[in-house]
From TrEMBL:
PROSITE patterns: PTS_EIIA_TYPE_4. GO terms for cellular component: membrane. Pfam families: EIIA-man. It comes from Endomicrobium trichonymphae. Keywords: Transferase. GO terms for biological process: phosphoenolpyruvate-dependent sugar phosphotransferase system. GO terms for molecular function: transferase activity. It comes from the Bacteria. This is PTS EIIA type-4 domain-containing protein. Coiled coil: none annotated.
Length: 93
């Protein structure tokens, strides 16, 4: 898996860097991607949710660096985690 990720990233050859989104820390995709951080301009976010995916898609053209994109996607993902019961109960008060 690590070789496939490296080959894919090299074929993309994006000088601005690449954001990698993985499902969970310690999982095979995350572990295999982690080694690319040393040699390639990559950022890896793990624990991805749908708001993060949408943020990555729609914000990729509006950020200067892959590090800025990773930070925005991370914050958007955190904002998407909500206790709906508490949100609804607090609005009723």
């Amino acid at each position: 898996m690590q070789n496939r990720i490296n080959n894919l990233l090299k074929s993309i050859n994006d000088e601005d860097g690449t954001l990698i989104l993985t499902d969970m820390v310690g999982g095979s995709p995350c572990n295999a991607s982690a080694l690319t951080c040393r040699s390639l301009n990559t950022e890896i976010l793990s624990g991805v949710n749908l708001p993060m995916v949408l943020s990555a898609i729609f914000s990729s053209k509006n950020t200067k660096t892959v590090s800025d994109l990773a930070e925005k996607v991370l914050l958007d993902g955190q904002k998407g985690i909500i206790n709906v019961k508490k949100m609804l109960f607090n609005k009723i008060k």
